[in-house]
Write a structure and sequence with these properties.
Length: 204
């Protein structure tokens, strides 16, 4: 894989890794640094004791940036950013407001990533039409966009070989830009049905 990080990006990630105390987040950072060095997925998997699918997910999450799913229309908005942080979240929220100029309030269902709770994100939402609703901790099954990420991996990252990082990135962004070509599959995948303590409830 060709080198894709700029020198300042690499230094930023190294500093972030030194300060990170969460092992999973540290592994995410190391995955990107190892990929930038040209290490193969198999070699990184052995170093970090992770499976190949986890490495590819970390790679996609780093480069693809934030994403938002319209739960009714099943359209998806993604942004390509250098690093997923509070600024990237604000950029995504700004784009959502621009896309919905007539909406009085825009409800956003979010996970509990640290950057989503950052003070600058709170400040931004106080002066915007965005209202963020945070999911319970460790409840990815309640987050519909997690199903979209799995669908993405099924279509794009599992099995195909990409000779260069640029090819992988282009293919990924094209997928999200044309995701409604898969509308029938998405309509089946993104039903608002959840299982809670053995019972099924339907949320409309």
């Amino acid at each position: 894989m060709e080198q894709f990080l700029k020198a300042e990006e690499r230094e930023t990630l190294i500093e972030a890794h030194r300060a990170e105390r969460d092992k999973r987040q540290a592994d995410r950072i190391k995955t990107i640094l190892y990929l930038d060095e040209g290490k193969a997925y198999g070699a990184i998997a052995k170093l970090l004791f992770l499976d190949d699918s986890a490495l590819r997910r970390y790679e996609q999450e780093y480069e693809a940036g934030g994403g938002a799913l319209n739960a009714k229309e099943h359209s998806v908005m993604v942004q390509e950013v250098e690093t997923i942080n509070a600024d990237a979240m604000i950029s995504l929220l700004t784009a959502l407001e621009e896309k919905q100029p007539d909406a009085k309030t825009i409800h956003v269902i979010s996970d509990n990533a640290k950057y989503n709770h950052a003070n600058k994100v709170k400040v931004y939402t106080e002066g915007s039409r965005i209202q963020i609703h945070f999911l319970p901790p460790y409840a990815p099954n309640l987050n519909l966009i997690e199903r979209v990420w799995k669908f993405f991996h099924k279509k794009i990252t599992y099995n195909p070989y990409y000779a260069t990082y640029s090819k992988f990135k282009t293919t990924s962004l094209d997928f999200f830009e044309n995701i409604l070509q898969c509308k029938e599959e998405l309509d089946t995948l993104l039903t608002e049905n959840f299982h809670v303590i053995g019972k099924q409830i339907s949320q409309t």
